[in-house]
Amino acid sequence: MPLPTIGGHWPPEDQASIFAKMREWQAWWSGDTDTLRDVYTGAQSVRPSLAKDGLIGAVKRFFWGRKNTDPRRQESRLHIPLAGDICQASADLLFSEPITVTTDAGDEAQERLDDMLDDGFHSTIATSAEIGAALGGTFLRVVWDSKIADTPFIDVVDADYAAPEFRWGRLVAATFYFIIKTEGQSVYRHAERHELDEQGNGVIFHGLYQGTASELGRIVPLADADATKGIQVDEDGKIDTGTPGLAAVYVPNVTPSRGWRKHPIGRHLGRSDLDGVEGLLDSLDETYSSWMRDIRLGKARILAGATALEDNGPGRGATFDLDREVYESLNTTPGSAKDSKLEIETVQFAIRYAEHQQTAQELTRNILRSAGYSPQTFGEQGEIATTATEVSARDRRTTLTKGRKERHWKRSIRQILQKLIDVDQALFNGPGGTVSVEFPDGQQDSQLQLAQTAQALSAAQAASTRTLVQMVHPDWDEAAVDEEVGRIKDGSSMSDPDRVGYGGFGLSNQFETEGDEEDDDDGPTE
Q1: Which of 70, 153, 277, 357 pairs with 413 at a CA distance of 20 to 30 A?
Q2: What are residue 211's phi and psi, to 5 degrees?
Q3: What is the pLDDT of residues 10-67, one digit of tens each?
């Protein structure tokens, strides 16, 4: 359906609690201390209707929710960017290595697909994954602009810019709202709605709204803003993709969403890596702030009596020279020798570094565990793993989390790339085809471990020379493997003619590659 001529609230009233929570997660992820103070001290963090449940009071009990009138105490608050590290690690685990995308339509189609994806696609999805880890999910959409590129490409929309609609857990429509300019009290928003027509093809409606900070307002011509005046739409403000399916997909970070299980829209959204650990993150900041306070208070100080100070003259105060070696003619108070001693004392408080360090480490471990990661993933100290098996065992929690996220991403990437190929065929005369997506194996054995495995298989006569070469060099293509097998055979036959075909792994002839069988010398041949 076309966009309404008069919009409502933004964010939508039925999603106000969702957007408030996303704002809180965004503050932790970005590390913006001003936003953290606003979230936990301002009314924007929760709805007024929740005050009766005590939520506002609970929020203000946060370290970042405490108000004080001393600006020096505000400045002494320290923020540890662990939330940002968690979200970045999530994206790195998924996309530190490029994914493999192929099509079944031949070399020409594969080359066309590679050209479309070569323009920053892997960086785009890595960025999207980090934001999605913070906000609970992210959107990918197919866009095209002949002034920028001669092919369609993939773009990212953050979850706090979108109003999605789901049916049976599947995305059926989504409206994206972008603030493109502000004039006084007027806020101009570009609305982009993705939905399906009666034939199941994806269509996109564009509209420009003039409203306020909290209201979409009324729709105005696209030509009223530079950012939208170049968009070519029909009389209904629509662009037809001419291909099946939406031109946008939603990628949940992790499911299910615990806090929004009963929310009609939130139940279909993903769960942030920061969901449920906000209090622990707040306590970690408080711990480090207290630690730094101990360091400031632990600085050595000298207390000198008035008689030890040197008068600098009328109106210029008095000072104490730390480098002065001899003091004479000091006016001490009359009395006993003990009472007349020079009044100089040193003060230096203890720094409780061990207690703070242990508390911070325990909080960090709890945060990482609740977020779904092993402490070893973030370089936390522990027993040193010497083999890939031990590394995998210690990172088991991280591996499970990565696997859950990978399944969501694989399905969504395949869906949006198929839409990309279809749009390219319909609008840019591309070759089309069906796309497939494969993620790389993140846990790889070392060369020594691969060689030891190959040696064991060779001794058991359980693999051919070709198989062993492919195992030790999984990144080689067929030509490189063939060349290496030939070198192994040549080297083996020159060193030991009686063991032709054993290769470097000690295999007998019957385990050689196909087509390399030797003639039987015991009988005639035809």
Answers
A1: 277
A2: -145, -145
A3: 888 889 999 999 999 999 999 999 899 999 987 444 444 434 444 444 555 788 888 7
Distance in angstroms (rounded) separating the CA atoms of residues 265 and 284:
32
Contact 229, 155 (CB under 8 A): no
Report residue 295's pLDDT band, with 50, 70 and 90 as the boundaries: confident
Tell the residue number behind the tokens 């009314």, with chain if given: 43
C-beta of residue 206 within 8 angstroms of C-beta of residue 247: no
Q: What are the CA-CA distances from residue 492 to residues 72, 499, 507, 508 (Å)?
A: 77, 7, 11, 12
Q: How far apart are the first and last CA of the chain?
A: 79
- Which of 185-189, 394-398, 504-508 reaches the highest mean pLDDT? 185-189
What's the Rg (C-alpha) of the chain? 34
pTM equals 0.77
Name the residue ranges covered by the structural domains of the chain. Answer: 278-385, 447-511
Q: What is the DSSP string of 378-415?
A: GT---PPP-SHHHHHHHTHHHHHHHHHHHHHHHHHHHH
Question: In the numeric block, which tokens belong to residue 441?
Answer: 């194996």
Q: Which whole-number Å values give the CA distances from 309 to 156, 304, 329, 454, in the listed order?
A: 67, 7, 12, 81
The residue type found at 291 is: W
In 3D, which of 432, 148, 131 has the Cα closest to residue 140? 131
Q: How many CA atoms lie within 13 A of 82 on its CB side?
A: 31
Q: How far apart are CA 444 and CA 475, in angstroms?
A: 12
DSSP calls for 307-350:
GGSEE--TTS-EE--TT-----S--PPSS-TTTTS--EEEE---
Cα–Cα distance measured from residue 279 to residue 273, given in angstroms and rounded to the nearest whole number: 13
Q: Are 499 and 491 in contact (CB under 8 A)?
A: no
**pLDDT (tens digit, 9 = 90+) per residue, 115-174?**
999 868 999 999 999 999 999 999 999 999 988 888 999 999 999 999 999 999 999 999
Tokens of 456: 């064991």
